[in-house]
Structure formats: C-alpha cells, structure tokens
Amino acid sequence: MTIEECYNLGRVTKMWGVKGQAVLFLDVDAPEDYAELDSAYVEVKGRLVPYFFHIDSMTGNKAVVTFEDATPEQVSMLVGCDLYLPLELLPKLDGNRFYFHEVVGFDVVDEEYGDVGTIASVIDYPAQPLFQIMKNGVEVLIPIVDEVIKEVDREHKTIRVAAPNGLIDLYLGDINKKC
Description:
By secondary structure, this protein is mostly beta strands. It contains two helices and twelve strands; from the N terminus they run βββββαβββββββα. The strands form two sheets. The protein has a six-stranded antiparallel β-barrel with strand order 1-2-5-4-3-6. A hairpin with a 4-residue loop joins β8 (about 115-125) and β9 (about 130-135). The termini are far apart. The mean pLDDT is about 95.
C-alpha cells in the first residue's frame, strides 16, 4: 500500500495514560463514521505500516485507542505520525459534493467564459480552498464554494462553474487576445 492509494485520516497526537494508549486526531468531517475503526496505516519513516487497535473512547475528532501487541515505548514512537486508510474506504459522494483528490484532472468550464482549463491541484487554505487550474501554462485560481460550483460531472470529468465576474479574465484575459 502506498500513500497515493490512501487518504490522510489524521495523526497520532500524544500518549494517554500509562498503559500505552494514544490519542488520535481524526481530520474528517464526520468522525462518528469511524467509531468502529480497528486498524489504520501509520506512516513511519516514509512507509505505511498497518496497526491494529481498539477505540476506548471518542469525543469529537479525538479518539483514545489501545494498540494491539504494542508496548508503551513502541506506541510513543508513533506520536506525531500520520494515519492513512485506503481510498476505496471513502464513502462515495454524489451530486456537487466531491473529495479534493477526486477532481484533479477534471476540466473546468465557466458559464460565461467557457473552457477555463484543467484542475492541477486543490489548494486547501484554511480560510478558503481553491481550484488550481492550468491553461496553456497559466495558473487560474477559483474559490471552491457552493455558489460557484454549479455541476460536477464525474462521467465526463468536468466541473461547471459560475466564477465571480472578471475573475477568469484577470488570469486569462490576454491569452484570448489576438496580436
């Protein structure tokens, strides 16, 4: 299993108690969906290592877990390590809801402007995530908000948007001008 085949679930944040328990921070929208989780991959020195555990308690995005067959010293070595699960375990989304990794490579079409380009990545700023779209070597940044995203077409790998007036011209205005 490689990191590219997984999604980041969270991280081991600290030790808990004296029996080798640890606190996991689950960086997910619905942590309750993971209440029955009994294993995850832990990134140790750049490699994914499977670990089995049971959840002793859960409050919000934090879970206290006991790792199976691990000493307190071994568990303490996991503090600060990221947790991963295989991509196929992600619940399927429909409609205009999507995972950021899912839309990389999708074409973006604006209602006014037309073809904007292809999503190269999603920049997940804390205040506002953005599509990073590339067209003819030019970067276009479009905010990911419900008011902008009009349709996600998974079959044709296209996202239809209604970008704020003038935003796309700010980036691509000169591309379409003839000499």
